[in-house]
Amino acid sequence: MRSGFLSLRWQALIALSLILLLVNGALALMAYHQSLAQFELQQSGVRANQVRQLRGLLENNYEEMTRLVSVVRTLGQNAPADTSDGRDFGARLARGLESEGALLGLEWDIRLVLWINPVGVPVLVWPADVQTPDAALFAGLRGADEGVARLFTCRPECLQFLAAPILWEGETGGTLVLGRSLADALLAFNALTGAEVAIFIDAATDSADMSTAVRYPAMTHPSRTEPIIHAIAADLVSAQGGSAGGGQPVLGALGGQWFEVFRVDALAPGISALLVNDVTAERQAIQAATRISILLGLGGLILSGSLLFWVAQSSVGRLQRIAVALPLLADNRYRELRARLPPVGGRLVPKDELDQLSETAQALTDRMELLQRDREEAEARLVWLADHDPLTRLFNRRRFNDDFGRVLDAAMRFGHRGALLFLDLDQFKDVNDLSGHQVGDLMLQRVGDQLGKLAHPSDILARLGGDEFALVLPECNEDAALECAERIQAAVRSIIVREHVRVHRVTASIGIALFPDQGQEAHELLANADLAMFQAKEKGRGRWHLFSADDRAREQADARVTWRDKIAEGLREDRFELHFQPIVDIASGVVQHWEALLRLRDPRGELVYPDRFIPIAEKTGQIRAIDHWVLAQAVTLLGLDPRLRLAINLSGSAMDDDSLLPDVERLLAGHRVLPTRLAFEVTETAAVGSIARATELMQGIRQLGCRFALDDFGTGYASYAYLRKLPVDDVKIDGAFVRDLATNREDRIFVKAITDMAHGMGKRVIAEYVENAEIYAVLSELGVDCAQGYYLGRPAPHAESVEVPRPLALA
Ligand code: C2E
Ligand code: MG
Ligand code: MG
Asked: Which one of 391, 437, 594, 597 would you pick to mutate in the ligand 1 pocket, going by the greatest count of ligand atoms within 8 A of its CB?
């Protein structure tokens, strides 16, 4: 489970949504407030207008009443004057009111007519059944003595009073008071403005527990207006009266409608009014506009979200495919990886970073696959080389020993008899010397092929080294073994190798040992067959010899004893000499150092090569003396020539030679030679034979400051496994892998693999057997550090400067 995973797509979407939500919310809020402000502005205009109109209406009423006074005072004028009251204005007025007063009520809404005598006593009240106004009212109208007085009261009905003094026969006859109802004025106001009006008595002027009817003495459409005021504007009523225009309006909803109520103060002392406007339409318009802006915002959000999701869909999908595919690289599943990577191009849009990533992943995959293939090939080759001889493709000595051991075990257990045939080519050296190693190699390959054809699948066939082959016949008797030897000899004789004008033929000398009669151990049988082979050679070329117990006795006094003497004599009479072969740094073309190669000059003055005597010296133990001689000789030479740098070869037995290291130290000090000028070479076979001691010696020598090289690397063992363990500075790749480098692809892969591996471990790589310019060029290309071979210089008695050619540039 992918815990805590949130796709990029969602991350972007959430971030975008949050931002858009904030922006849209702010915009909607702003629009809402703007609409409210607009509404408020408009309403304040409406309110001011309504206040003006209400007050104007009241004022208008008074003015009409002023005109009515003139009408009322003339009432009863036309009636026949009776003498008793002809002079009495009050009586005349009473008569007039009686006949035409009803019209006053109907037409002008006059609810009350008072005639007050000059001393302030009401002498006429019309209509008669009306309740006589209280004293407070008279007090309010008293000012009428001087002129017209106005009064507005609501006790209990809202009436506007106008009091005007009447001059009668030249003097003030009294005051005429008209009381007019407000109802019509309010209805007119309502019809004009659409606003409902409620006149109310200020809380401050009256007791708080007034009934509604008393509190609101006049109201338009009470059934509608009253609930609105109670629900929305009760506070406005109880509040103290302020400015003439009233305080802040109150907004509220009732029954799904919106109302704005505001107060108009001081219509008269203690009397104010509430104006109720229905603002439902405006409010709904604002809400609708806000709703639309929110919906538009949400729509935009969904649209942009979907767009983002759609755009990210393909990109994130491709990214995901790459992310899922890349780990396959670690498992070397290249084909699958390629199939999973998103395709590059093929779309209408131009390439983007993900295409680049995909391309890079493709390229990386190709490269990794190539490297993997090369590595696998090199590894397969190394594994194969662990068991095989690369030249003849037969088993090598190591594999032979293993298999032979198993065959012998089985033979002992089951009582089988078998034979070992040990085969050595006669005068094979001539082939090499006359026509070169290439022809020699060809001859060895042909011999290997012929032997392969003769061997049965159950037989063990191997090339033990040089021109030596061995064949084990696991189940056979003496006759069958001899017969096989004959057949081998015939087959070998039939081989013809041509080189220009020369034609080479070879013969094989075969030594035969039978098991278990002539030995039960592999090494014992090999030694016996080897001895038998020498016996065969004594008889002349192309012979075989079956080992017998007498042979061993004869051997004691035979050729090998003389070789021991020859070596002893050589040491005694100082007949050993060193030859020197240059080792060249490929990059600079400068001779890095020289390898000292040992030769023995026989009494006749002929040079004897190390292959002839070193194996014998190793068996007889004389090798130790030889190693010390070579060391002393080399250090002496180094002491004489300060520019010289030398590498000397150590034998396998040097690993057990405790006196070697102190000797090196002593000699270097004695001749004042810098340790860095001396290097040592040990064959891989010798080092791997006793790996612990080899490591110890290598470490000791490197601590002194000398270099150490692993010689003939790559033959016979799973070498690369040891390379890691051995503390060497240089790796000398065996000539067998170098000689055909120009033509053999496998060798090239092998040398490249070894070089890369050694470089990876910080080691320098030297190739031997560099016999021509092509090989030299290939080595340069493969990154090998140094080269040694006949092309660059043959071993010579003196380390003299050589002309080093530059590597060819490869096409
Ligand atoms: P090595 O140490 O691998 O020496 C290289 C051998 O390859 C030398 O043979 C050299 O002459 C030969 N060689 C060099 N370049 C070429 C080339 O381009 N083509 C061919 N075909 N051969 C080339 P050499 O001198 O006969 O020595 C053979 C082996 O004897 C040496 O192999 C080394 O293992 C051993 N050896 C030589 N000198 C001494 C020594 O002083 N002490 C000990 N213990 N062993 C020695
Ligand atoms: Mg060497
Ligand atoms: Mg070598």
From this structure: 597
